[in-house]
């Protein structure tokens, strides 16, 4: 079992930056691929970014590519999402998730992840 806790959300103006953190506890953190998802009001939860357990492979949704960066520090059991050039449409609750199964590619759907945090609100004002 892995417990995930997201922090770092808040209110920011369009064009600004935020860094989200996701701290893991419980089982060893490093064997997990990690992902970030987001969910806006009335919308389904959507994929944002994913990172392999080694930290060497990343994948991003087209909507955030070039603006967001996912990274991890296995020594601190933490994964990060650096968000730059934020837009109003980035407003959502952001969730981190852990996938312990070995795959040929990074997961990009909700069903591919086994553990979830409670989410942190990001609001971008235009």
Notes on the protein architecture:
With 126 residues, this protein is mainly β. Helix content is 0%, strand content 50%. It is built from no helices and eleven strands. The termini are far apart.
TL;DR of this structure?
This protein has strands at residues 2-7, 10-13, 18-26, 33-39, 46-51, 58-60, 68-73, 78-83, 92-99, 115-116, 120-125. The chain has 126 residues and is an all-beta fold. The model has no long low-confidence stretch (mean pLDDT 95).
Ordered list of secondary-structure elements with their pairings:
Elements: E1 2-7, E2 10-13, E3 18-26, E4 33-39, E5 46-51, E6 58-60, E7 68-73, E8 78-83, E9 92-99, E10 115-116, E11 120-125
Parallel strand pairs: 2-11
Antiparallel strand pairs: 1-3, 3-8, 4-5, 4-9, 5-6, 7-8, 9-10, 9-11
